[in-house]
Every structure is written in C-alpha cells, then in structure tokens.
Amino acid sequence: MHTQAWKQTLRHHWSEGETFLKWLLFAGIIGVVVGGVSSAFYHCFHWATRAREANPWLLLLLPAGGAAIVLLYRLLGMEQDRGTNFVLVAVRENTPLRLRTAPLVFISTVITHLVGGSSGREGAILQIGGSISSKIGRWMGLDDKDSRVITMCGMSAAFSALFGTPLTAAVFAMEVVSVGVMYYAAIVPCAIAAITGLWVAQACQVPGTAYSLAGVPDLGPVSLLQTVVMGALFALLSILFCLMMHLAGHLYQRGFPNPVARGAAGGGVVIALTVLVWIWNPFSFDYNGAGEAVIHAAIEGQVRPEAFFLKILFTAATLGAGFKGGEIVPAFFTGATFGGTVAPLLGLDPSFGAGLGMVSVFCGVTNCPMTSLLMALELFGGGSRGMFTGQSLCLFAVSIAVSYMLSGYYGLYSEQKIVYSKFRPEFINRKANEDEPD
C-alpha cells in the first residue's frame, strides 16, 4: 500500500511537471506571435497618428471612415461583433473567436486614428491577442479549459507588448473577466506570455509607457483623507464615463438604425465637436486620437479644467457610432486631466492628482483593483524622481480601492461578470451595467 501511494504521488507530480513545461512552451509561442503582431500594430497606429497630425484635412474624411469600417465588418460577416466583450465571453465560456477579428480590428483602429476619431488602442489589441491565441489553441487541439487559458495568454502578451507593463497585463487578463474571482491557474502562462511579448516588442523598438510624478506625499492622516476624497470623486467620474459610452451607442441606434449611416453620422458629429473646440481654442486637436500628449502634460501639472469632459464627449461620439479602438487610453486622459484639476483644490500636487486619476478611473471603469495597483507601480514606480516608498504606494491603493467600491456595478464591458458584491462578502453573479436603463 505504501509503495502504491508513492507511485500515485510520483505520477501526480509528473503530470504537474508536464503541465508546467507545456505552458512554458505554449505561453512562449503566444508571446512571440502576439508580441510581433502587437508591435506591428503599434507602428501602424503611430504612423496613422503622425499622418493625421501632419495633415489636419484628414479629419474631413471622418464620415467616410466611419462608413468604411461598418462596410468592412459587413463584408466579412462580422456585423454583430461586440469587440472586447466577445473576448471576455471566450475566456469565461470558451466561445471560439474568429481569426478574422485580428486583421479587421487592426485595420479599423488604424482608420479611426488616421481620420481623427477619439479612441484608444487597448480594445483593439485585446481583440487581436485574444483572437490569434484562440485560433492557435484550436490548431493545437487544446481542450475546453486550456483554450480559455491560452486566450488569456494572448490578452496578456498583447497588453504587455503595447504598454510595456507585463505585471499589469498578466493580472488584467486574469481579473477582468469575472470580478471577485481570479483565474489563478493561468498565472504562470499569462506571466510568461506577457514577459515574452514585452521582449518581442522591445526588440521591435516599441517604447514602454512610464511617467515621473511630482509631489507624491508621504502617508499621513491628512494625505489619507485627501486621497479618500479623490477616490470618491474618481468613482463618480468612472460612472459618468461608462454611462456616456453606453448612452452614445443607444442614441446613435435610435437616431440612425442603418449602421452605415450611423458611422457616417458619427464622423460628422466628431467634426462638429472639433470645430467647436477650434472656436474656443484655435487649431486644437487635443481630443482627436488617443490624446497621449495631453496625458503627459497633465502628469507635468499642465491641465485645462474642461479637458476631461470634452474627451468623454469625443470618445462617446466616436465609439458609439461604430469606430474602433478602445476606451482605456481615453479613460487615462479623463482621469489624468480631472485629477490634475481637482488635486490643487484639496491641497495636493496636480501631478500626483493626475497619476491618481489615471489608475483610479481605470479601476472604476474596468473593476480591476489589483491590476490598477500594479499599473501604478509599473507606470509611476521608476523614473527620474525615484521609486515609490511603500507608504506612498498605499495612497494609490486607497484611491483605487475607494474608486472600485463606490463606482458600483458599472463597467465598460457589459459581458463582465460581477461575481461577488463590492460591499459585503456575498455571491451576486450579475453582469456589469445590468440595471442600467436603456
């Protein structure tokens, strides 16, 4: 009996070892493939941004760009595509993702930025990474559970390659699908895929994302109270952001039932908003595209008080009409400009407020507190102003936690499951925005 037990133990550990080695190999493959595609996406994305900035007349093509994206999806039988929501469903329910999603969202996001739509890049890259890795998993003949893990690997590799934040990327893929439940079985594959994707991106000269904050206070009763107030304000801003994103889509559908007309009309709305901003601030293109320059300016303490709301309007008008991209970089923009505006009113440095806003609004709209804390560490932890102290990082943790709790059950992704209550240890298992009125 004793010998039999030892044999069973050895077989068990041998099986675990095989699984470990299998995922080292599979995650490495996904990291290389998805990291390479993500690097190509980055360079095309920035080519489109530079071309638009050098040729402002391209904004006049916004209506044509919106219509073209809708027609492209229709041509390839993807009219019912729901973007990142499909990736979340693929992880939770092993719904297969079509490989054609990758080139479609790649091209459509580049078109969106070339003609001046307001969107980010992470929504596209999550779909690209998820669809490629899902297809590779099917080619490998993976079973139901392993297929979910390899899809998360693709999300991690893509996010890491584009932003240069491997810890954030690995945890985000495990945390975003089901709030309150972490897919810990995927921690090794996601970490390896994220690191490999980062290395491939660095080899392809994709720069990482990092900022140097000023005025980060030490932890104390006053700074703690100030941060709690900031976190509550960021929670309200997160709710506003999500409501505006969803409301815009509903309004477009009611006003323009035809998707092609909707895309063209959305382009016209963005042009009208751009002209209104020009009247106020001549030849300002701050709200077209991702707005990364404005985020950097906010971190340096240079903000305009109206910027956060205008970015929400531009992004809702763009994505609600059917343009492609993502909401995360616009959420960074919104949080940074709002935080930099409000922080001095509470006696905090605007640079610190902008940094708090970036990660806290990200948490409020994605419901991912652990990801947000790691993001704060990776985005702001280094730089010329030195590393965080443990106590100053606690202030970011408090703001993120307050934003997570008080933002309620809103979110950018309607297929995100809220498994456990944010207010008590209670199983609720509901979707984000479930009680939101149409």
Automatic annotation (TrEMBL):
Domain of life: Bacteria
One GO cellular component term: membrane
Keyword terms of this UniProt record: Membrane, Transmembrane, Transmembrane helix
Name of protein: Chloride channel protein
GO molecular function: chloride transmembrane transporter activity
Record SUPFAM superfamilies: Clc chloride channel
Subcellular location, record wording: Membrane
Lipid bilayer topology: Multi-pass membrane protein
Origin species: Candidatus Flavonifractor intestinipullorum
Xref: Pfam families: Voltage_CLC
Family matches, as Gene3D superfamilies: Clc chloride channel (1.10.3080.10)
Segments crossing the lipid bilayer: 20-45, 57-76, 149-174, 181-202, 222-248, 260-280, 354-380, 392-412
